[in-house]
């Protein structure tokens, strides 16, 4: 579904990803751990094709097509969607209108209505301007609804569980787990709360712009909870030597 | 109010405080031909939100140049609203003249003085005490003859405990490539009355517009003043003044502006808060493109306790040759008064464009969606069908953007 090969990415003069390799097969959900500033969000931006994230070498292959130079919207139309960690406010654009346009007028479709209902996105929120005055939980729910309205095959979730209270976490977790059936996904999480509801098949740790290691999600999360990311540095330097 | 002819004559040489100065001798004051209510005129009115065929309005007023072609109130609303020409109102009520030139000084500048000397028409709308009407009263003022000056005096009174919506569209006929619109409007919102006044302006590159507006809001009264300006105009200078005279009174002005071509527009709004517990809010959202220039002014002076005032100016630049200036001013004469302002001018934010592209929109689709969002009128509190109509007018203007 998604294959990233030896990817190097810069933002301005700064190298934010170096030699990143990652492969997600059809129907697989992966999780990406890593400390703040390690490059997790940069990877999502690079996969989406954010204009500020320049690929200086390497390739991103999606559904067998090299999308490295493809405009963002064309990548989306190929069947990917993402939830962003810090989405901008859109004054004057109502959530309802945006969802309707994203889904090509399918807002009244049962599936989408059920999702809106499941996420407890009420009429009041639907009528508000996107992300303007939204709480942390509302932002995440609104991101999820938009991503699923695109009906994608691959989903990228950037911190779907940060800044969310317990009640909303459960709502979001359950909705994600139900909607991810049969889809591929990469879930970025800093502290792993979302893994109470979703069981990825594989985990990766990003450290200083590199994938430091891959492995079993539960084991890795336990390891990180006990020892933090201190080992990663040694690990990377050992790999290099 | 009695007009001092000598002082008026002196004021004819006085330029306005702001905006381009106009030579009034280059316009004519008498139309060269009679106008009739023909289809092209009716269609033009429709383009500024006035649908003369509409059944669901309280009444309609339509003036072309100096001729009032239509003034009618639906029978079932005759006990709620009075609608007539200003001349008829002066004739009918001896107190009407006392309310004229009360909220606008005729000696303020050459435009007020000229309008005072050459007044021809204008509407008188009075919502009677305790009456509430939820469908709009509509008025359209249209310039037809080439180089004509339209000198109009409007008077609106929302009597105690009344409520109404007025929608007024001002425009010109395509035949008229040059013209000057001088519309004097005085609005009285009496105790606990609520008036929503929405004005849609659509002009052309040869049209100059100098409206003068004065509003008075009494105790517990609410005034919602919405202004939508779309497209290209040669010049506009306007600075509606509001006096929040009574306690717990409120004014909210909401300007939505899309300017193109060589437009030169200086828009302001001034509020003096005298009533304790009163609130003023002046909001402007503007989009400028081509070589259009906009100065957006706002001023709130608070003289009473427990009051609030806020000025917001958001400007979106779609061209490097366009220009927006925001000039907010706050004056507090009471410690128990909270006054704030915010202004932000810039181009469409890259992050917003990327966000929408990440939802599958093409760059041009994302751009127009964001611009359209900027011209949102949903907070104007309009009746739904009026909101829809103005939305479609904006959509029409934005076509091809």
Query: In percent, how much strand structure appears in the residues of chain A?
Result: 25-35%
Low-pLDDT windows of residues of chain A: none
Assembly of the depicted chains: heterodimer
Q: Radius of gyration of chain B in whole Å, from Cα?
A: 20 Å
Helix-and-strand structural type of chain B: alpha/beta
Query: In terms of structural class, how would the helical and strand content of chain A be classed?
Result: alpha/beta
Order of helices and strands of chain B: HHEEEHHHEEEEEEEEEEEEEEEEEEEHHH
* CATH architecture field of chain A: 3-Layer(aba) Sandwich
Coarse morphology of chain A: globular
Individual helix count of chain A = 9
Query: Would you give the CATH topology of chain A?
Result: Rossmann fold
Q: Give the end-to-end Cα distance of chain B, rounded to a whole number of Å.
A: 48 Å
* Biggest interface and residues each: A-B, 25 and 24 residues
- Read across the widest sheet of chain A, the strand sequence of neighbours is 6-7-8-3-9-10
Specify the biggest β-sheet of chain A. 6 strands, mixed
The rough form of chain B would be described as globular
Tally of helical runs of chain B:
8
**In percent, how much strand structure appears in the residues of chain B?**
35-45%
The count of β-strands of chain B is 22
Q: Radius of gyration of chain A in whole Å, from Cα?
A: 18 Å
Can you put this structure into words, describing what you see?
The complex is a heterodimer of chains A (241) and B (401). Chain A contains nine helices and ten strands. Chain A has 241 residues and is of the alpha/beta class. Chain B is α/β, with parallel strands linked by helices. Chain B is 17% helix and 42% strand. In chain B, the strands form two sheets. Chain B has a ten-stranded mixed sheet, covered by helices on one side. Chain B has an eight-stranded parallel beta barrel with strand order 8-10-13-16-19-17-14-11. In chain B, a hairpin with a 2-residue loop joins strand 1 and strand 2. In chain B, helix 1 crosses helix 5 and helix 6 packs across helix 7. Chains A and B meet through helix 2 and helix 3 of A and helix 6 and helix 7 of B.
